[in-house]
């Protein structure tokens, strides 16, 4: 199928919630900061390829404990120059006090960051429990509150967990935590990756019953090999459906595993669109091939 022609960029002044107030399915892509200059150049080339799918914005993570914050801002500045689209920086409570958090937010706004993905953050490598930095914050809802108090113009996304956060005692506790983040001022919820759409629909229904009215945006990772799927799913406690595991393990060739993973993500995407999701956030791992394959020809927001 033919891809839709490029359209004019969305207005940079559009709020984060506004991105999901139009017809169709608004998409966004998540990047991570490369470790080398060559990696940044490769990332920029992939960003240019992804523009054909008319994303609403790009996000960028940073390393554990804020180890690559500077590179994250460099990446976002380059992406904004290339795309003329809004950009979002991840920000966690790990290893930073409130003064340092505010300083990062100031630097982010100075280089043109539009949105923040506000997270508590995972415990540093080698530890199993989150530890509050002296003078810092314990929970993501506190980070949302700090942003709302000091940087009112920044859009805020928070994380949701269709299969329950691994540290939550139960699903209701996890949902209560999400409600606190939304009540503190979050504009949207972006979910952790999942491989079974039924988990997302159940989570979305639970959010509605809990009084969460902001857009719930599913997060999709197109896996391209089974070992990668196992590793990433193990990190976030996402279940891999038996059908996907069986299909990927029948042939260990890179071509077969790529095709199976992309086809699965494409079917997830089609089903999510048919179920009326306001948007989809793709974890693309700084590559464009899998995302381009799965999105080719699909009817998305703003496309002819």
Secondary-structure map with pairings?
Layout: E1 26-31, H1 37-50, E2 57-60, H2 69-83, E3 87-92, H3 98-110, E4 115-119, H4 140-150, E5 155-160, H5 171-183, E6 188-193, H6 197-209, E7 216-220, H7 226-236, H8 242-249, H9 254-274, E8 279-283, H10 289-295
Parallel strand pairs: 1-2, 1-8, 2-3, 3-4, 4-5, 5-6, 6-7, 7-8
Key terms for this structure?
10 helices; globular; alpha/beta; 304 residues; TIM Barrel; disordered N terminus; 8-stranded parallel barrel
DSSP strand count = 8
- Helices, by number, come to 10
Largest sheet: 8 strands, parallel, barrel
Annotated CATH architecture = Alpha-Beta Barrel
Structural class computed from helices and strand pairing: alpha/beta
Low-confidence spans: pLDDT under 50, at least 5 residues? 1-11
Q: How do the SSEs run, as a string of H and E?
A: EHEHEHEHEHEHEHHHEH
Terminal-residue CA separation: 13 Å
Number of domains: 1
* Order of adjacent strands in the largest pleated sheet: 1-2-3-4-5-6-7-8
CATH fold name? TIM Barrel
Strand proportion: 5-15%
Average pLDDT figure: 89
Helical coverage, percent range:
40-55%
Principal-axis shape:
globular
Please give the CATH class: Alpha Beta
Q: Radius of gyration over alpha carbons? A: 18 Å
How would you describe this structure to a colleague?
Mean pLDDT is 89; it is low at 1-11. This protein has one domain (17-295): Alpha-Beta Barrel (TIM Barrel). It is globular, with a radius of gyration of 18 Å. The protein has ten helices and eight strands. The chain starts with 25 loop residues before the first strand and ends in a 9-residue tail after the last helix. With 304 residues, the protein is an alpha/beta fold. The relative contact order is 0.15. Helix 6 (197-209) links the parallel strand 6 (188-193) and strand 7. InterPro entries: FAD-linked_oxidoreductase-like (IPR029041), Mehydrof_redctse-like (IPR003171), MTHF_reductase_bac (IPR004620). Belongs to the methylenetetrahydrofolate reductase family. It catalyses: (6S)-5-methyl-5,6,7,8-tetrahydrofolate + NAD(+) = (6R)-5,10-methylene-5,6,7,8-tetrahydrofolate + NADH + H(+). Pathway: Amino-acid biosynthesis; L-methionine biosynthesis via de novo pathway; One-carbon metabolism; tetrahydrofolate interconversion. Pfam families: MTHFR.
């Amino acid at each position: 199928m033919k891809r839709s022609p490029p359209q004019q960029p969305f207005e940079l002044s559009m709020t984060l919630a506004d991105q999901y107030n139009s017809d169709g399915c608004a998409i966004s892509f998540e990047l991570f900061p490369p470790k080398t200059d060559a990696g940044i150049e490769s990332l920029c080339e992939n960003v240019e390829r992804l523009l054909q799918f008319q994303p609403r914005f790009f996000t960028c993570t940073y390393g554990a404990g804020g180890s690559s914050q500077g590179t994250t801002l460099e990446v976002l500045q380059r992406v904004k120059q290339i795309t003329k689209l809004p950009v979002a920086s991840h920000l966690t409570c790990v290893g930073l006090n409130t003064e340092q958090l505010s300083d990062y937010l100031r630097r982010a706004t100075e280089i043109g960051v539009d949105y923040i993905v506000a997270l508590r953050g995972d415990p540093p490598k080698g530890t199993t429990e989150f530890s509050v930095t002296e003078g810092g914050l314990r929970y993501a809802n506190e980070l949302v509150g700090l942003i709302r108090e000091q940087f009112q113009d920044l859009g805020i996304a928070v994380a949701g967990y269709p299969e329950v956060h691994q540290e939550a005692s139960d699903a209701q506790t996890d949902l209560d935590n999400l409600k606190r983040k939304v009540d503190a001022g979050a504009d949207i919820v972006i979910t952790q990756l999942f491989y079974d759409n039924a988990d997302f629909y159940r989570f979305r229904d639970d959010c509605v019953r809990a009084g969460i009215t902001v857009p719930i945006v599913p997060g999709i990772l197109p896996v391209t090999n089974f070992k990668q799927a196992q590793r990433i799913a193990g990190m976030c406690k996402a279940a891999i459906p038996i059908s996907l595991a069986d299909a990927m393990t029948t042939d260990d060739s890179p071509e077969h595993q790529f095709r199976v993973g992309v086809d699965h993500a494409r079917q997830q995407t089609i089903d999510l669109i048919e179920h009326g999701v306001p948007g989809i956030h793709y974890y693309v791992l700084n590559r464009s091939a899998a995302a381009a394959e799965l999105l080719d020809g699909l009817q998305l927001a703003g496309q002819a």
